[in-house]
Design brief:
The chain contains ten helices and 15 strands. By secondary structure, the chain is an alpha/beta fold. Strands 3, 4, 5, 6, 7, 14 and 15 form a seven-stranded mixed β-sheet that branches. It has a six-stranded parallel β-sheet with strand order 10-9-8-11-12-13, with helices on both faces. Helix 3 crosses helix 4 and helix 6 runs parallel beside helix 7. The longest helix has 14 residues.
């Protein structure tokens, strides 16, 4: 593959709304040891991108957002094994996804299974890494326990429901509308409830036969914390994905102490490569065989790269069922 010297990308010009996403020409980077260069055909849009844009923060030194991509492997750095230029790949990346080319660490790159389009593949890495890291590394979900996802039709939620249920775990979901609770059931939730219901905790306890939830994934920044604590199993764990705007959480300590509930959370992006690589190994062994059959993303909206600002506006104004994706259109 003959590489150009530059490519088109979307950058965060400054902190602000979707309007701060602007096009820019960037030099094509060269992969270092253990890295590969991917010619991007599609990139997933995630809530992290929205938060990064609003803050104007470029923690990894690139103003280009985007944590997951699919495309063609263009070039391998030294020491890379098992990956061949020309292969269709998808990858978790450390920013830079909203552009024609991006560097990826080789352990975090997967070949795209037959039967999945690049657009579908670009929706998978961030959600699958987030699912595995939180449910198994952070919360140590075990067979026979119950899991719950607040936001079961979100980009992460709908894929987590498919993957966990396909692997034989019992997962409950919450959503904000009847349409979404029905969709969550279709994604594999054993039960799905409205998180607006004041009797949510009682519904969940009934669904679990009084056992309660041992692993709860919360994307609502603790909006339902009192209900959460009332539905938790003893020694259960709540993991948070998003701090939202104020970044604080008021916790009724007596309820927490009564069940010995642990509350935690993490950002996926700052995790060191070794930890991400271990998650990638588990995904290869457990989840990759399910892709395209029992696990397939729903694409709620697809935009061209130059419409990235519009994609962000849609994500901020609504909570679509499934993923939002950008097409690079080389």
């Amino acid at each position: 593959m003959t590489l150009p010297t530059t490519f088109n990308a979307i950058v965060i010009d400054r902190a602000g709304g979707p309007e701060v996403l602007v096009p820019r020409t960037m030099p094509v980077p060269q992969p270092g040891p253990g890295q590969v260069l991917i010619r991007v055909t599609a990139a997933g849009v995630n809530r992290h991108d929205i938060n990064q844009r609003a803050a104007g923060a470029h923690h990894d030194g690139t103003p280009v957002p985007g944590l997951e991509v699919a495309g063609t492997l263009a070039l391998c750095g030294t020491g890379v094994e098992g990956l061949v230029p020309g292969a269709r790949v998808m990858a978790l990346v450390q920013g830079g996804g909203y552009g024609g080319y991006v560097l990826a660490e080789a352990p975090l790159v997967f070949e795209v299974p037959d039967g999945l389009s690049d657009t579908e593949a670009a929706c998978l890495p961030e959600a699958l890494f987030t699912t595995w890291w939180n449910f198994f590394d952070m919360m140590a979900l075990q067979r026979g326990q119950f899991a719950l996802i607040h936001g079961g039709t979100s980009g992460v939620g709908h894929l987590a429901l498919q993957a966990l249920s396909a692997l034989g775990y019992r997962v409950i979901a919450t959503s904000g509308t009847t349409e979404k609770t029905e969709a969550a059931s279709g994604f594999g939730a054993m039960a799905a409830f409205s998180y607006h219901n004041p009797d949510l905790a009682a519904q969940v306890m009934q669904a679990t036969g009084g056992q309660g939830v041992s692993a709860l994934l919360d994307m609502s920044a603790g909006a339902h914390v009192e209900q959460d604590l009332a539905m938790m199993a003893p020694d259960g764990v709540i993991a948070h994905l998003s701090p939202k705007r104020n970044g604080t959480l008021a916790v009724p300590l007596r309820a927490l102490m009564a069940r010995r509930v642990r509350i935690t959370g993490s950002f996926l992006r700052p995790l060191d490569l070794a930890r991400k690589a271990r998650v990638a190994d588990r995904l290869r062994a457990e989840v990759m065989p399910l892709l395209g059959r029992q696990v397939r993303p729903v694409i709620a909206h697809s935009f061209t790269m130059n419409d990235a600002a519009r994609a962000h506006a849609v994500m901020e104004k609504s909570a679509p069922i499934g993923k939002i994706v950008l097409s690079m259109g080389h």
